Amino acid sequence: MVSELGTHVAVARARSGSLDAAAIRGRLAAVMDPELPMVSILDLGMIGAIEMGPTVRVEVLPTYVGCPALALIEDRIAERLAGLDRPVEIVATFDPPWTSERITPAGLAALRGAGIAPPVDPAEMRCPLCDATDVVADSLFGPTQCRALWYCRGCRQPFEAIKPI
Amino acid sequence: MSPVADAPAGTALAELLLSMADDEFVIGFSDSEWTGIAPILEEDVAMSSLAQDELGHATALYGLHARLTGADPDATAFDRDPDAYRHARLLDHGRGDWAMTIARRYLYETADAVRLEALTASSWSPLADLVGKLRREERYHRMHIDAWFERLARTAGEPRERLVIALRALALDAATVFSPLPGEAALVADGVLEVPMGELEARWRATVEPALAGWRLPALPTAPAAPDGRTGHGEAFRWLWGEFTTVRRSDPEAVW
């Protein structure tokens, strides 16, 4: 069974056209993460199973147990999926657990583009700004739960990295 | 499906969830007291992040407790009398100095890791799912606190002296994460918890005692965890309780 952390139900409005899980995913590609606004929640790997029944059931996988943005993300999903031909149920679950390996290649590229290093083994860390390998971990804890602080000796800039989890 | 349909040993499970939630809640609040005043900027961020993680873990655990008991999670967290909290007395010593904070966290994180490991295959899947996720986060806590603990232990003079003083102050309560829980035999029988708390304490001692000896730090008392190690909270907790319930008590009906 799943851990039901919370449930949002968006009221249905009649709408024509076919509806499948792929279409739902397509819509969610436009929902950006509140703390990493350059990446969609889809590319972060936060969307789990989507079941198309009498209701559309969307599983959300919280990146961290105490993620303070979860309620906001659920609201944004509900907003984005409003107006479908059936109710939407949004369920947060830890089964399967979100891991940093769920981030898609497009998501990793967007992070790198914003100067945030993707989650890698610390031995393989490279500076997202200048690609140097002469980097040092400054702190395991950064501005949000999912990020660590690093420093690049090449370009002498601090940078953030997504923690492998 | 009824939220409790698949829950074994209801009362004992509720006690387990409450003890874990209260542990995370109390250490989270204690460490949030460093926000703004930690020794260095990175530690200010790190302690705040650790505290945020722990309060998040507490929220999830109070949520599971609520599914089992029907209690309002906010009321459980904020509306009980200080004596009704079930966290380990290890967490009752006040924030103290930096060495006290690191010593307390070292003892707690090592104990919590042993406890979480014994719940990974829990027969109650909502708990097993959550524990799987918690362990991924706690790994970073361990790495951080182990590094600080070793730094203080290896730095002669004031850092090491303060660490020794902190360990002596915590010694009698060090093992209280493993104080027996009401009904824990039922939890073991139902497969919720792998082994009794006493066996978990032995596992914990098998890792922590050699580590302390290796750093030539004060040894833990040999007596097992006190049976009342999750009750009888003292003045330091009453003060903390007064702090973390201030807003709630000022307007219990407020909706956030």
Q: Determine the CATH superfamily of chain B.
A: Ferritin, core subunit, four-helix bundle
For the secondary structure, the number of strands of chain B is: 0
Largest interface: A-B, 26 and 31 residues
Number of structural domains of chain A:
2
- Secondary structure tally, helices of chain A: 3
Report the average pLDDT across residues of chain A. Answer: 89
Which regions of chain A contain 5 or more consecutive residues with pLDDT less than 50? 9-16
CATH topology of the largest domain in chain A: GMP Synthetase, Chain A, domain 3
Largest sheet of chain A: 4 strands, mixed
Tertiary shape of chain A: elongated
Evaluate the radius of gyration of chain B: 18 Å
Strand percent estimate of chain B:
under 5%
Element pattern of chain A in H and E: EHEEHEHEEEE
Spatial strand sequence of the major β-sheet of chain A: 1-4-3-2
CATH architecture of chain B: Up-down Bundle
Q: Which CATH class of the largest domain in chain A?
A: Alpha Beta
Q: Write the CATH homologous superfamily of the largest domain in chain A.
A: Fe-S cluster assembly (FSCA)
Beta strands of chain A, count: 8
**Radius of gyration of CA atoms of chain A, rounded to a whole number:** 18 Å
- Biggest sheet layout of chain B: none
Explain what you see.
The complex is a heterodimer of chains A (165) and B (256). Chain A is an alpha/beta fold and 165 residues long. Chain A is built from three helices and eight strands; from the N terminus they run E-H-E-E-H-E-H-E-E-E-E. Chain A has helices at residues 21-28, 70-80, 105-113; strands at residues 7-10, 47-52, 56-60, 88-92, 116-117, 135-139, 147-152, 157-162. Chain A folds into two domains: 7-100, Fe-S cluster assembly (FSCA) (GMP Synthetase, Chain A, domain 3, 2-Layer Sandwich), CATH 3.30.300.130; 116-162, no CATH class. Residues 9-16 of chain A have low confidence and may be disordered. Chain B has 256 residues and is an all-alpha fold. Chain B has helices spanning 10-32, 41-69, 73-78, 98-117, 125-154, 158-170, 184-189, 197-214, 235-244, 246-250. Chain B is globular and about 50 Å long. Classes of the chains: A alpha/beta (165), B mainly alpha (256). At the A-B interface, loops of A face helix 2 and helix 5 of B.
